[in-house]
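User: tokens in, sequence out, please.
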């Protein structure tokens, strides 16, 4: 009954979209794809010496299991690679195929509701202020043992926002019919609850 039911969740880094997406997928029994991992995997292969285009065209499922994909260096490389139209084009079919899988799917990224799945039944845009997102990311990195200052993380967040929002191909922005969720003053439980309510309402309609 839920075949082809797609939940598109977009937003900038460290806004909480990944956590919300995983929780929504688990609640409804949908498959989940963190599309950012695709670009991180491309970024990691670029750091190993491939061109971005070659990295995207040769991506395989095992590349998504690289333990280094969550590092800041890979995130930077991923953001740069994601601005290249040929890289995005190479990954579109994979994402759209995933979105139509049996049993429903949740995809989170930067352009799911606007480009990848413009006909998704549910579109959410999860955001928060740069300062809040920087504090969240800094706490996460410090907990993992990274030696980085809050100022450095904030600068990185702002640079990625600028790059993602201003790129010519599929810039980061809410879809016209997306429900925007600002999590600046929400804890994760409240954000998850709200997202589940929005998806449930669409399922019932």
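Assistant: Sequence out:
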């Amino acid at each position: 009954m839920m075949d082809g039911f797609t939940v598109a969740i977009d937003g900038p880094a460290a806004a909480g979209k990944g956590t919300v997406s995983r929780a929504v997928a688990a609640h409804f029994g949908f498959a989940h794809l963190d599309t950012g991992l695709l670009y991180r995997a491309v970024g990691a292969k670029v750091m190993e010496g491939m061109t971005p285009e070659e990295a995207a065209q040769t991506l395989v499922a095992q590349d998504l299991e690289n333990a280094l994909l969550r590092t800041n260096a890979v995130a930077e490389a991923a953001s740069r690679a994601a601005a290249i139209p040929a890289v995005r084009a190479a990954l579109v079919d994979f994402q759209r195929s995933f979105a139509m899988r049996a049993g429903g799917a949740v995809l989170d990224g930067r352009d799911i509701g606007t480009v990848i799945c413009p006909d998704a039944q549910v579109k959410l845009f999860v955001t928060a202020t740069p300062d809040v997102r920087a504090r969240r990311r800094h706490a996460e990195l410090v907990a993992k043992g990274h030696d980085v200052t809050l100022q450095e993380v904030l600068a990185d967040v702002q640079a990625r926002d600028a790059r993602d929002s201003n790129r010519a191909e599929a810039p980061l922005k809410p879809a016209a019919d997306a429900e925007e969720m600002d999590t600046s003053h929400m804890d994760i439980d409240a954000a998850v609850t709200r997202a589940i309510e929005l998806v449930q309402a669409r399922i019932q309609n």
